């Protein structure tokens, strides 16, 4: 089996690519994820499903051909993963941030992301304290079935062992079916709530309805709110007013960005490890406050290039926001429109929401053993069962709590 382990600094490059790509998507802007919580804009879901559809057959095809990867499907402990996902989804709906998108938002110059960093580290610290208690151990050990994937189980760093009667080639076949199914969901799920046409119909008709035109204008407006000026006909205008606001996420631009993100994770798993973001917060909490706690000791022992990839994510988002999309806000007081509509423009209230939401999100992420990067993105590409349990819990909680938070 062909294997390789890259030095830690390569994580900077991995993070840079993903940070820049996701910033172009609009994930660094908390309004994008708040609208996801309101079920008004399904950009993240559509694009992440496309990333799975492209990358999962690639990684399992290469694995069947004898290429070794640093597999890391998260352990499936049902209660802790499910409860952690519920807390994570609630915090996501409140803050508009994932752990990774906080670093992207800092790169985009968003002031409320500064408060989200403090909330995230405190949330990680709270789990560090709870972990060594009987309650914490019960959460991670009860109904723990190990690191399972569709058709297999991780038995060592480089090996996903197919279940009895299956081979690696069978896992590749499962991954193709998996990829096709997820692509079809993304293909037919309208990006915007109230969208009148499936992506298939949009491709056939080659036109936009007045509703779709209005959604494009509105999306471009919030993506560029407080950003740098750009010229007519520039790359920034094309990105902000045409490509990044497409209602049809199976057009070439969105597929390209999704492919870049997904295949970068595949490359990362070959080079060193999965893509994860929230471990850095536990590492920081341990270094700053809780160095002798059991969870901190486990993090210190197992930490990979997460701090490097988080710094790379920030740098990539900064590069994209300044030189590509021109969305850099210079840390002005920019309140997400959905938040302002519901809670007003008071800066202190928004900062409390950003801080509190990030606290809940990181507390849930560390309880579940991963976040949107490690559980959903990396886990989904690996067909990890724990990743899908976490994702279902996150989105169910996010939609329920988002409906409560942002009711008119």
Automatic annotation (TrEMBL):
Subcellular localization, as worded in the UniProt entry: Cell inner membrane
Gene Ontology cellular-component annotations: plasma membrane
Keyword Cell inner membrane: yes
Topology term for the membrane: Multi-pass membrane protein
Keyword ATP-binding: no
Pfam families: Sulf_transp (PF04143)
InterPro entries membership: Sulf_transp_TsuA/YedE
Protein keywords: Cell inner membrane, Cell membrane, Membrane, Transmembrane, Transmembrane helix, Transport
Transmembrane segments: 6-28, 48-71, 77-106, 113-131, 171-189, 252-275, 311-328, 349-368, 388-406
Protein name in UniProt: Transporter
């Amino acid at each position: 089996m062909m294997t390789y382990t890259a030095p830690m600094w390569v994580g900077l490059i991995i993070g840079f690519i993903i940070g820049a790509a996701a910033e172009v998507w609009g994930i660094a802007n908390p309004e994008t994820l708040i609208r996801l919580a309101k079920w008004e804009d399904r950009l993240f879901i559509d694009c992440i499903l496309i990333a799975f559809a492209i990358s999962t057959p690639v990684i399992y095809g290469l694995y069947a051909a004898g290429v070794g990867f640093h597999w890391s499907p998260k352990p499936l402990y049902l209660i802790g993963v499910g409860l952690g996902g519920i807390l994570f989804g609630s915090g996501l709906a409140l803050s508009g941030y994932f752990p990774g998108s906080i670093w992207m938002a800092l790169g985009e110059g968003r002031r409320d992301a500064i408060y989200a960093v403090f909330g995230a580290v405190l949330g990680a610290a709270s789990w560090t304290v709870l972990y060594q208690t009987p309650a914490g151990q019960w959460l991670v050990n009860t109904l723990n079935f190990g690191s399972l994937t569709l058709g297999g189980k991780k038995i060592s760093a480089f090996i996903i062992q197919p279940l009895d009667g299956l081979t690696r080639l069978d896992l590749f076949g499962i991954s193709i079916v998996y990829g096709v199914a997820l692509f079809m969901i993304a293909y037919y799920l309208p990006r915007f709530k109230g969208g009148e046409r499936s992506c298939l119909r949009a491709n056939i008709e080659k036109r936009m309805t007045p509703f779709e035109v209005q959604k494009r204008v509105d999306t471009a407006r919030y993506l560029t709110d407080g950003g740098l000026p750009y010229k007519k006909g520039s790359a920034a205008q094309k990105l902000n007013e045409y490509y990044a606001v497409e209602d049809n996420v199976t057009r070439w631009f969105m597929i390209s960005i999704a492919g870049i993100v997904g295949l970068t994770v595949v490359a990362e798993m070959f080079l060193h490890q999965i893509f994860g973001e929230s471990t850095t917060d536990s590492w920081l909490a341990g270094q700053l406050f809780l160095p002798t706690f059991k969870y901190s000791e486990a993090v210190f022992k197992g930490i990979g290039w997460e701090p490097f990839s988080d710094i790379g994510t920030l740098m990539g988002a900064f590069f994209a926001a300044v030189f590509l999309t021109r969305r850099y806000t210079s840390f002005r007081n920019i309140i997400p429109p959905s938040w302002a509509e519901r809670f007003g423009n008071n800066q202190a209230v928004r900062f409390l929401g950003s801080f509190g939401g990030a606290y809940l999100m990181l507390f849930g992420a560390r309880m579940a053993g991963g976040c949107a990067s490690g559980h959903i993105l990396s886990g989904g590409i690996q067909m990890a069962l724990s990743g899908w349990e976490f994702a279902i819990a996150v989105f169910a909680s996010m939609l329920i709590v988002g409906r409560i938070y942002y009711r008119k």
